[in-house]
Structure to design on (80 residues):
């Protein structure tokens, strides 16, 4: 039997933002979506810590997109 996963309030908000954004869900857009919908502006560190924890729980998955010159050759980390 699969163990039930418990999510805190901020984890639920982040998950809903990811679901709303679909294929465009990465750190900056997730933060913007949370701010637009809740009025809360989470720090990047708080958001990425939460996303990492959710990935460890198996609630979300992430992957790296293509590196772009606009980001100085760094790839975006997308979530679903």
């Amino acid at each position: 039997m699969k163990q039930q996963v418990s999510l805190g309030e901020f984890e639920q908000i982040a998950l809903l933002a990811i679901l709303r954004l679909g294929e465009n869900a990465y750190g900056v857009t997730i933060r913007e979506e949370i701010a637009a919908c809740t009025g809360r502006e989470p720090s990047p560190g708080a958001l990425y810590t939460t996303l990492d924890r959710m990935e460890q729980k198996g609630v979300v998955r992430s992957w790296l997109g293509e590196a772009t010159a606009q980001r100085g050759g760094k790839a975006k980390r997308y979530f679903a």
About this structure: The first strand starts at residue 62 and ends at 67. The beta strands are 62-67, 75-79. Helices lie at 9-21, 27-38, 44-57. The chain has a mean pLDDT of 92.
